[in-house]
């Protein structure tokens, strides 16, 4: 089963947030919250199709944390 890992990271040159999947970058989003929402929606669709799917966030200090995992966290997430 394929694993889809969506990374939300800050595009430092632009000061905006992007979602990265397999090296492909999304359009930029003005806030981290908006980029996370888009990533969770995409991960949910992949999970519903039978794939492992996860959203990871790289904060401004380069620390990576798991934000959402299909089958473990509620959809849509609170907040």
Total beta strand runs: 5
Continuous helix count: 1
Largest sheet: 5 strands, mixed
Which structural class best describes the helix and strand composition?
alpha+beta
The helicity comes to 10-25%
Q: List the helices and strands in order.
A: EEEHEE
Side by side, the strands of the main sheet go 3-2-1-4-5
- Shape, per Cα inertia axes: globular
Oligomer: single chain
Instruction: Point out poorly predicted stretches.
Output: none
What percentage of the residues does DSSP assign to strands (E)? Answer: 35-45%
Over all CA atoms, what is the radius of gyration? 12 Å
- The N- to C-terminal Cα distance equals 30 Å
Tally of individual domains = 1
Mean model confidence by pLDDT: 92
Molecular structure report:
The mean pLDDT is 92. By secondary structure, this protein is α+β, with helices and mostly antiparallel strands. The protein has one domain (3-65). It starts with a strand and ends in a 10-residue tail after the last strand. Strands 3-2-1-4-5 form a 5-stranded mixed beta sheet, covered by helices on one side. The chain has one helix at residues 32-48; strands at residues 3-11, 16-21, 24-25, 52-58, 64-69. The protein is 22% helix and 38% strand. Strand 4 (52-58) and strand 5 form a beta hairpin.
